[in-house]
Amino acid sequence: MLQQADLRDVTRDDTSLRRFLHGLPGVDQVGAESRAALLATRSIKTTAKAWALDIAIRMVDLTTLEGADTPGKVRALCAKARRPDPSDPSAPSVAAVCVYPDLVATAVEAVHGSPVAVASVATAFPSGRASLPTKLHDVKDAVAAGADEIDMVIDRGAFLAGRYLQVFEEIVATKEACGPAHLKVILETGELATLDNARRASWLALLAGGDFVKTSTGKVTPSATPPVALVLLEAVRDFAGATGERRGVKLAGGIRTAKQAVRFLVMVNEVAGEHWLDPSLFRFGASSLLNDLLLQRHKTHTGAYDGPDYVTVE
Amino acid sequence: MSDHEDIGRLPVRKTYKLYVGGAFPRSESGRSYPVTATDGSLLAHAAQASRKDVRDAVVAARKAVAGWSGATAYNRGQVLYRVAEMLEGRREQFASEVAAAEGIPREQAAKQVDAATDRWVYYAGWADKFAQVAGSTDPVAGPYFAFSLPEPTGVVGVLAPQESSLLGLVSVLAPVLTTGNTAVVVASETRPLPAISLAEVLATSDLPGGVVNVITGVTAELAPWLASHRDVNALDLTGAAPGERAALQRAAAENVKRVYVPRDLDWQRDPGTSRLSPFVEIKTVWHPIGI
């Protein structure tokens, strides 16, 4: 097992970082897919299901990342984040709202006085194609506007070209620019091509101080597939084993149904452990997922199937 | 080689499945139940749907509402007429199935199939005429045009008649489609096979997937889920047992569904517009004159 001292050593220079990342055990892709598929067959019913639906709602980062976002849309989203189900006060609020940096101030004002945090994407989201000073300026803007959490994107071009130290240093610099804000590192696994790369990128982000590793921007398919989630959860589990520090995982993109969400929760429990069944260590980045969670919640409470007429439109 | 002719050919048996969202899935529950002829001999096994199949069917029907209700009435008529064309082409098959299901002579069954095809043509014709009959320009005391138009109700749950396996089914299903609704049909519990064959006809007739969804199984098990489902807009109780109707109506009242309880179950009689009007909403538009 890795020791903390070893981990400090591996980030000393490009060569040792590369040696460490390429020395990580390879991911058996077929094995990862079948393990993920097996975990998806677990049946979660009655009280366990009701618990899972509520915790899943509390783990949602309610997201709007469109060119057409307006202050009005962000305020509506925040109202929904604070009180997802106006007809039922027992429905919990979500973890955070996630917006572009220029709308952070609007969101901060709208969630004021509630437990909902404001997350902002930054560092030239979603492509990450800008110079480091520009990216850091983007981050500082968002933090100054009041963002509690920053979702950065890694430079996939540098990562795929093998310039690991550059990626590492960008994450370190971003973490520093965040100040008190939490940093989530978006790996965009859909562009990393292999699960081996997803594992390497996760470790790279964790070594650099990312508080969360996040699968995707939501702008690229495939996004948060079950095997990718498995690899990220293994990385935070092993990182915690090596250092004693628990870091989080955020799955984003393509998670639309409560059924998918509950399956991921089973995976979190089985792979990382029950400590991770907490909004401080596990999140869903989603928009339409919340409505389906609410519909299923109605179903468990009333016994009758519900329809989209009974939840707010996005 | 000499034995070859004696062996004969193995029959290719059909697996009767559900029809949901344009596909033919098995029941989510994996269940099936034996379907027998009136003399008790086994005809086939049909899928025994569960409440989750009902839920999936409603989701499929909801998805199809925008396309089907948004199609022009003329286009809907054309598609429905196409269904009748396909029915005509399968006349022999349906005659055998209806004869086996209902225990009637083949000639009589063939007449039922012809009547069902004619009924489908009848309703196809109504598609672009019903608005003229059910709609109106309203005389109002002011400088306005006011006109009223029938619009589709949305997703209609249909409990198909238990006795008449094809003519009865067509008589309750076609009018729902004519006015632009989508349907989740619970087929006759003891005679479901012609309904699944009808689904094969629908699947090959330009009818978009999800407009009609056919579920087979125990009506008393499935109907309450359909009646209480908040995303179903109307319910046709034709196939419900008289003793269950009150409970279904109560469940349907939860989201103020339109509920249709038929008085006339003689499928041979000319239906007029009696089954077209229950599943529409009248929209009235006022338009100022001279401004």
What characteristics describe this protein?
heterodimer, A: 314 residues, alpha/beta, TIM Barrel, 8-stranded parallel β-barrel, 13 helices, 49% helix, globular, B: 291 residues, Aldehyde Dehydrogenase, Chain A, domain 1, 5-stranded parallel β-sheet, 3-stranded antiparallel β-sheet
Overall number of strands of chain A: 8
Number of strands of chain B: 10
Please give the CATH architecture of chain A: Alpha-Beta Barrel
Largest sheet of chain A: 8 strands, parallel, barrel
Overall outline of chain A: globular
- Say what oligomer this is: heterodimer
Question: Can you give the mean pLDDT of chain A?
Answer: 95
Write down the overall geometry of chain B: globular
Low-pLDDT windows of residues of chain B: none
Would you kindly provide a written description of the structure presented here, covering whatever features stand out?
The complex is a heterodimer of chains A (314) and B (291). Chain A has 314 residues and is of the alpha/beta class. Chain A has one domain: TIM Barrel, CATH 3.20.20. Helix content of chain A is 49%, strand content 11%. Chain A has helices spanning 4-10, 14-23, 29-39, 46-58, 71-82, 104-111, 132-144, 156-160, 164-178, 195-207, 226-243, 258-272, 288-302, and strands spanning 60-63, 96-99, 117-121, 149-153, 182-186, 212-214, 248-252, 282-286. An eight-stranded parallel β-barrel of chain A has the order 1-2-3-4-5-6-7-8, surrounded by eight helices. In chain A, helix 6 (104-111) links the parallel strand 2 (96-99) and strand 3 (117-121). In chain A, helix 11 (226-243) packs parallel to helix 12. The longest helix of chain A has 18 residues, at 226-243. Chain A is globular, with a radius of gyration of 19 Å. The model of chain A has no long low-confidence stretch (mean pLDDT 95). With 291 residues, chain B is an alpha/beta fold. Chain B has a single domain, classed as Aldehyde Dehydrogenase, Chain A, domain 1 (3-Layer(aba) Sandwich), CATH 3.40.605.10. Chain B has ten helices and ten strands. Chain B has a five-stranded parallel β-sheet with strand order 7-6-5-8-9, sandwiched between helices. A three-stranded antiparallel β-sheet of chain B has the order 3-4-10. Chain B has a two-stranded antiparallel sheet with strand order 1-2. In chain B, helix 8 (193-203) links the parallel strand 6 (182-186) and strand 7 (212-215). In chain B, helix 3 (73-89) packs antiparallel against helix 5 and helix 5 packs parallel to helix 7. Chain B is globular. The N and C termini of chain B lie far apart (91 Å). The model of chain B has no long low-confidence stretch (mean pLDDT 95). At the A-B interface, loops of A face helix 2 of B.
